[in-house]
Amino acid sequence: MRILSVVGARPQFVKLAPIAKAMEGRAEHLIVHTGQHYDELMSDVFFQDLGIPAPDFNLGVGSGRHGEQTGAMLAGLEKVFETARPDVVLVYGDTNSTLAAAIAAVKIHIPVAHLEAGLRSFNRRMPEEHNRVLTDHASDLLLSPTQVGMDHLANEGLAGRSVMVGDVMTDVLYRVRDELASNDQPLPAGLKTDGYYVCTIHRPDNTDDPLRLKAIVDSLATLGRPVLLLAHPRLKALATSHGIDLTTGSLVLSDPLAYPQLVNAVANSAGVVTDSGGLQKEAFLMRVPCTTIRPETEWVETVELGWNVLVNDDLSQLAGIVERPAPAPTDATPYGDGHAAQRTVDALLETFGK
Ligand code: UD1
Question: Does 331 reside within a domain?
Answer without folding.
Answer: no
